[in-house]
Design goal:
This protein is α+β, with helices and mostly antiparallel strands and 414 residues long. The chain contains twelve helices and 16 strands. It has two domains: 174 residues, no CATH class; 178 residues, Phosphatidylinositol 3-kinase Catalytic Subunit, Chain A, Domain 5, CATH 1.10.1070.
Length: 414
């Protein structure tokens, strides 16, 4: 049995029975005035929750794809056993909760282990041998959702540390996507896109490039907060969890949420739907402009605040995927039924607006204004990153210019 913890408080117990996940809220959590549910699909109750709703929430805390496959093979864990995977690396996961074996819950002593530049460089060298960062520290029970290799760290004053005994991380360290010859300058790519988003007024996570001398991206976690000198975890739900689907369904073509579903979920759960709708609208247009074809349902999340009020989290995982010829340029979510960006016409933007209940004049005005800001923002952002003459940035600039032209001609005219 696993204890689901929020700091030092027991939220409930998770166990597997007859190959099915079961979850029950703890009595002390039910009676707490500050309690909140794991998700809208698992409301606080004395009953035992089982089956898909439990699976949908907890499976979305785990790594995905090749990273998960490599870890499972190296740790000799079964591919379909979500419970075993959570037991192996669920102590520092996305959002507010830690998952630890029942006999360890009260014995934890939070601490941070120094993670020197030499240690990080040694870990990065082993990536070429297909050893994921999370696996290289098997004694640490770390988990990060997503398919890209990364590791949670505590980062302050230029020093890295690894969380131990339930200590909370503050940042995510993301190395270059492997193999680097196929995905050159991926660290700069993501840093540039995140900085560009912030420069254009979008609420995106803070990130910096740290050179070891190998460049790594260090991203500030939006689901953490420093309060009275202590790192506090914040509860978050990605849109797969909100929609009640598995991480394998993060793409619309695989049965996951499409854009109309995303806006519907905001209308249903957001404390201030109008504000969050505008932010997601900007996210759609910005991803179209920068050529991010991997903007799927797990790349949007909501933070749970006071009174269980949900608000859109800062944007993250912004990357120009279209500069890499090996990657599919079709968008993860269709715009008005069209997945191919070069084929998105005026009627598709109109259909998208209708499906998402967006005033089309608002979409035109806001989308075209964002297109201009993105184009104007490229030179100063490149200068800040010292990448004015980088070939990758030149490629992104050309792509954005082309997409902005499409947007102006196809969104602005009938």
């Amino acid at each position: 049995m696993l204890q689901v913890l929020y700091g030092n408080e027991t939220v409930g117990q998770l166990w597997s029975e007859a190959r099915e996940l079961h979850f029950r809220y703890a009595h002390e959590w039910i009676s707490s005035r500050s309690a909140f549910p794991l998700s809208p699909h698992l409301p606080i109750s004395t009953q035992t929750w089982r089956g898909d709703e439990v699976l949908f929430f907890f499976s979305n805390l785990l790594p995905e794809g090749a990273v998960l496959d490599a870890i499972l093979k190296l740790k000799r864990l079964p591919r379909g056993d979500v419970y075993a995977q959570l037991a192996a690396f669920g102590e520092d996961a996305a959002g507010a909760f830690s998952l630890v074996p029942e006999d360890e819950g009260r014995q934890r002593q939070p601490a941070w282990q120094p993670y020197s530049v030499e240690d990080i460089r040694a870990d990065l060298e082993r990536l070429a041998d297909h050893l994921p960062l999370l696996f290289q520290h098997g004694e640490l029970r770390l988990s990060l959702a997503g398919a890209q290799d990364k590791i949670p760290v505590h980062y302050a004053d230029g020093q890295f540390q690894l969380p131990m005994g339930g200590a909370a991380s503050t940042h995510i360290l993301k190395p270059a996507i492997q193999p680097q010859k196929v995905f050159p300058d991926s660290v700069l790519n993501e840093a540039f896109c995140l900085h560009l988003a912030r420069h254009c007024g979008l609420a995106a996570v803070k990130a910096e490039v740290v050179r070891l001398p190998e460049p790594v991206l260090v991203v500030e976690r939006y689901d953490r907060r420093l309060q009275n000198g202590q790192v506090q975890r914040l509860h978050q739900l990605d849109f797969c969890q909100l929609a009640g689907v598995l991480p394998d369904q993060k793409y619309a073509k695989d049965g996951g949420p499409g854009l109309a579903d995303i806006f519907g979920l905001i209308d249903r759960y957001a404390a201030v739907p109008g504000r969050d709708r505008l932010q997601v609208l900007d996210w759609v247009v910005f991803n179209y402009l920068i050529g991010n074809a991997d903007a799927h349902a797990k790349n949007l999340a909501m933070l749970v605040g006071a009174g269980n009020r949900l608000q859109l989290a800062p944007l993250y995982d912004l990357l120009c995927t279209s500069v890499y010829p090996q990657l599919d340029t079709r968008m993860a979510m269709a715009i008005g039924g069209e997945y191919r960006p070069e084929w998105v016409q005026h009627r598709h933007w109109q259909r998208f607006a209708a499906e998402a209940s967006i005033n089309f004049s608002l979409l035109q005005k806001r989308g075209l204004a964002l297109g201009k800001r993105v184009l104007e923002g490229i030179p100063p952002v490149a200068t800040v990153l010292g990448a004015e003459y980088n070939p990758l940035i030149a490629s992104i600039t050309g792509l954005v210019g082309k997409r902005a032209g499409w947007l102006e001609s196809r969104l602005g005219n009938a």
